[in-house]
Design a protein that fits this description.
With 518 residues, the chain is α+β, with helices and mostly antiparallel strands. It has 2 domains: 242 residues; 223 residues, Sandwich (Jelly Rolls). It has 9 helices and 22 strands. Strands 4, 5, 6, 7, 8, 9, 10, 11, 12, 13, 16, 17, 20 and 21 form a 14-stranded antiparallel sheet that branches. The protein has a two-stranded antiparallel ribbon with strand order 1-2. The chain is elongated, with a radius of gyration of 29 Å. The two termini are 16 Å apart.
Length: 518
């Protein structure tokens, strides 16, 4: 098929695009294969979601796991700690001195069957003072704390973290903490002697009610260990820990109705026999409080991210690569390229028109496929008892549109490689080696984490970062590696790397097409 030309003998941009679109849609095999690629994404994604089931033991039967609490920002959160508190009506504050922080950590058993528990605190164990909107999990809060290895911090509403001065705490070097409330503004302070105070930070909690809970808290997340797998990848595990802090010189300001202090083990889970699983505890003697807590107050990264439904994208991508390569190499194989280039003196424009056509077709097919898969896949996951980590609608749009755009960029890259090679098999293999293979190597238990991260920085597979919906939190212990769904580049930065490869390859193809015979 020749390309339409105008009177000057050159194809205008609109005519070039229309001609390339006509070429694509009149070859039924390309159209059917592109539709098949979209269907592969949908079917594999929905099948994967259908095969993922989660349930929780409850005596002799299995029931759905309890809902994960959601924080003020809509994110899934961990909200488990021991809270010794009183009611604060209106403005006020709390001051306390922390004189020690100890704990215990469950380590791998040295002798089978013998529990190996060692003394110590994990880096993100926390003890301090808090103001919280009730005792409900996920409710708004602000807290000033001393941590196991990250000094003093002020955190609020799970995702926000501000660093104070470094250092730990001991009987010889206590840390004073203070948290004050004025309306919906909370201000945190720290001091080494209780006389000279330094501000750590401020937090604004919109809609904070007049009556809140104020008090002392302790929590301790699991001890995260990452080991190398048998095949070179990595395996992570989190083991039980608990922390105990001693507070004295506790003082309250403001109206605190209700009298005595109350204890609450926020978020404690129940065993089948009704007993608490890894409970916290507290005791008070002569104004000195000893509080022991387990858990964490932080965003949750444990669960199914929405992009988990897009497992079929990789297979669909291979189909897209084949179609994109054939879109250009078929003209060389059939000898039609001579006719095309005779009709279009500006060879570069012809190749750009092909790239725009295959990119647009791929984007449209990918957008339909990813929209359907994510929408229905997440519903299936939830129906099967899985915890799907909630994200904002903007993040969902970015995952869906970004994945479709990644498929389009990959199609342009494959087309450019096809124009450079002029042979289908070599071009398809090269495109798969450049895009698919690095992703597979980086996200399976094959390479060490450092090598996996390197691959996803410098290869066209970097664009898969556009799918990451849950960010990496500096104050949350986690296995932030590609095998766990975390990428070394920000979503759009990774996409830009893939787009850069496509633009470079297309530019080289245009230069080569101009310099050599068809």
């Amino acid at each position: 098929m020749t390309t339409a030309v105008n009177r000057s003998g050159q194809g205008g941009p609109a005519r070039l695009l229309r001609a390339e679109w006509t070429k694509f849609r009149t070859v039924r095999g390309w159209v059917i294969t592109m539709i098949a690629g979209a269907l592969v994404i949908v079917l594999l994604g929905l099948l994967s979601a259908s095969g993922s089931h989660t349930s929780c033991d409850s005596g002799p039967t299995e029931t759905a796991c309890p809902a994960v609490p959601v924080g003020p920002g809509g994110e899934a959160v961990e909200d488990k700690f021991y809270f010794v508190h009183r009611t604060l009506a209106g403005n006020g504050g709390i001051t306390a001195r922390v004189t020690s922080m100890t704990g215990q950590i469950r380590k791998p058993d040295v002798t089978p069957g013998v529990r190996n528990v060692v003394p110590g605190v994990v880096p993100w164990a926390k003890a301090g003072v808090m103001v919280k909107n009730g005792t409900g999990r996920g409710s708004a809060y602000a807290a000033v704390m001393i941590t196991g290895a990250h000094g003093v911090r002020m955190q609020h509403d799970f995702t926000n973290d501000v660093a104070g001065r470094p250092g730990g705490v001991s009987k010889d070097s206590p840390r004073w903490l203070r948290l004050t409330r004025s309306g919906d503004t909370l201000t945190g302070y720290e001091s080494a002697d209780g006389a000279d105070w330094a501000e750590v930070g401020t937090a604004r909690l919109p809609g904070l009610p007049a009556t809140v809970e104020i008090g002392l808290f302790v929590t301790s997340p699991g001890d995260l260990t990452v080991t190398r797998g048998d095949l070179g990848g990595s395996i992570s595990a989190a083991r039980f820990t608990e922390a105990t802090a001693v507070f004295d010189r506790v003082g309250l300001e403001g109206e605190t109705p209700g009298g005595a202090w109350r204890d609450d083990d926020i978020g404690v889970t129940k065993a089948p026999d009704g007993s608490s699983h890894h409970p916290g505890r507290a005791s008070v003697s002569g104004g000195t409080f000893s509080v022991t807590g387990v858990g964490d107050i932080a965003p949750s990264i444990e669960g199914q991210p929405v992009e988990r439904t897009l497992t079929g994208v990789l297979t669909g991508l291979i189909v897209v690569i084949v179609v994109a390569v054939m879109f250009v190499t078929a003209e060389y194989r059939r000898g039609l390229i001579h006719t095309t280039l005779t009709a279009i003196p500006h060879r570069g424009r012809m190749l750009v028109a092909k790239a725009l056509t295959i990119g647009t077709v791929t984007f449209a097919a990918g957008l339909a496929a990813t929209s359907i898969t994510l929408t229905f896949g997440t519903r299936i996951l939830r129906a099967n008892g899985n915890v799907v980590l909630p994200v904002s609608w903007l993040t969902e749009v970015r995952v869906v549109v970004g994945t479709a755009a990644l498929l389009a960029v990959a199609a342009v890259l494959a087309l450019a490689i096809g124009a450079l090679f002029r042979r289908s098999v070599g071009a398809v293999v090269t495109a798969i080696v450049l895009i698919v293979v690095p992703y597979v190597l980086a996200t399976t238990s094959v390479l060490p984490d450092t090598a996996a991260r390197w691959l996803l920085r410098v290869t066209p597979a970097a664009g898969f970062a556009i799918q990451q919906s849950i960010p990496e939190y500096a104050h949350v212990p986690g296995h932030y590696a590609p095998i766990a769904g975390f990428y070394p580049l920000a979503p759009w930065a990774g996409f830009a790397v893939s787009a850069g490869y496509a633009a470079l390859a297309l530019g080289l193809a245009v230069v080569q097409l101009r310099r050599r015979d068809a």
